[in-house]
Protein 1
Amino acid sequence: MSELAQRVLNGELRALSRVLTLLERNDPAAAEAMEQLDPRTGSGYAVGITGPPGVGKSTLVDRLAEHLRGLGLTVGILAVDPTSPFTGGALLGDRIRMQRHYLDDGVFIRSVATRGQSGGLPRIVKSMVRALDAAGKDVTLVETVGVGQTELGIMGVADSVVVAMTPESGDSIQTLKAGVMEIADLYVINKADRDGANQLAAAVTAMLQMSDLGDGWNPPVFLTQAYANVGIAELWDGITGHRDFLSDSGGLEKRRIERRRSEFLETVQEEIYRRITQRMTKDTALSGLLDRIAGRTAEPYGTAMGLLSDDEELARFGGGE
Ligand SMILES: Nc1nc2c(ncn2[C@@H]2O[C@H](COP(=O)(O)OP(=O)(O)OP(=O)(O)O)[C@@H](O)[C@H]2O)c(=O)[nH]1
Ligand SMILES: [Mg+2]
């Protein structure tokens, strides 16, 4: 076993941090580390917290982390930077708010940039969650900003998904209709101190009663005031309730198997794309092909399909660097 992987397994946070950096850089050493860490995963639990900008996700994550530490559990936090126009200084704010945890070895915090990714959640977040699991984090909290469809990616990362809303984001019910209902295992109406919180909770509950999601789980709705630490213990109990439901029904295993499969497929897809685009500048055969396509002497669809049906060509373009 590599020294790096061994240090991660020993719970060394700097080694864990290093593995996440290697993953972000697509460094071959990340593959080696992940292969060695994988057999030691499976005991951690991943919770996704998603919702529109400013609903209080970071505050919720921070309070949950505090609550979990109180229960003697170790915590990993991945804050996925959405690079959305809404959240300019948000990460800095998160850092400051979470600062007090930095002195605590039981909490590991990392922000993940999504720059350069084509929307949605970067697939390396799946690998990162597994790395945190191997490093012995009992619970990993993944914060992602989601507006409508972009929230859906969190489902492929977390065991339980918490969708957060506030009474002030008046379009909350609209958001629900836009497909969020399929991903939410639990709902949080945060900023319950604001007007309209109870009405929103009632509206969400009513909508849930009208829809049968068919998996036997009825998503509960929690009212929280994250900044005042109100409702956090209840929310955590709700999450463990969902975890128990999933493990009893076999749903947890199903979700995790699906996640592994999609991590593999997404990695293959992304890597082939990345390598081909990288080669466009260097590889004269490929740039020549692109020139012919542009110059109408080659047809885009047929040329692409031809390339893919030729194993040698495919290996040449998609293969190692
Ligand atoms: N009134 C009220 N404000 C809250 C509550 N919880 C959090 N806030 C405030 O809401 C603001 C946004 O909180 P964040 O935790 O940064 O929200 P976020 O969802 O992480 O925001 P982004 O990451 O930018 O999408 C902060 O000023 C918090 O102090 C609450 O229960 N009530
Ligand atoms: Mg935040």
Protein 2
Amino acid sequence: MIDIHTHILPHVDDGARDLTESLAMARMAVADGLTHLFATPHHRDYTPLSRQEVMERTAQLQAELDQAGIPLTLLPGHEVRLYDDMFDDWDNHRAGSLGNSRYVLAEPLFSHYDKQTDAMLFELFERGYTPIMAHPERIRPIQDNLTLIEPFLAAGGLTQITATSLTGNNDWRAKKVAETMLRNGMAHIIASDAHHSYHRPPTLTAARDAAAAIVGLEQATAMVSARPLAIVKNEPVIIATVFI
Ligand SMILES: [Fe+2]
């Protein structure tokens, strides 16, 4: 399995606090069956890193994993926030795609989703990228009205739902929306959005199984394996939508 959304880089954002935490997360990921993991620090807030810096920090952490004998491959990325100056950041290399691929992990604001949000997503399409919307099931306006993301989906946009939205008991609203998205063929990839080894850990097996109960094991497995692998390889993500 491959996780396209994690905050495993230490000392960067609200994810891993230090190297010990990063290593604990990596060990947990391997134990859960993960082989590759994208490091996707928030591109805004905390200690923003340029594309170059994310690459360097990812390589540094990879060296630590190798030295510790943890068989996990790290890839660089950003969780790109869809806010007013996003393209200014993008054009100045302060935000980038997943592993230099055509795929961009794009996070709407939690508080509102409007025409401006769609405009940024569509500009990404125009620039030749495929946006992957980060955890729409946790975005309040989308929770209230799933049709908001229909234009994005119709344009070929992908969505990433968060593992604990399916498995956790804390956020019933996110869980309900994630399950509806699965049923309606609106969810394409499951990722951990791991910040720590304890809260939202870097594990996908339980969420895959929860998704399998709704869409079947083949679809659920594609969400954590074949589709993320296509992103690693920068190949087309195949969506065989099954409406339940
Ligand atoms: Fe995140």
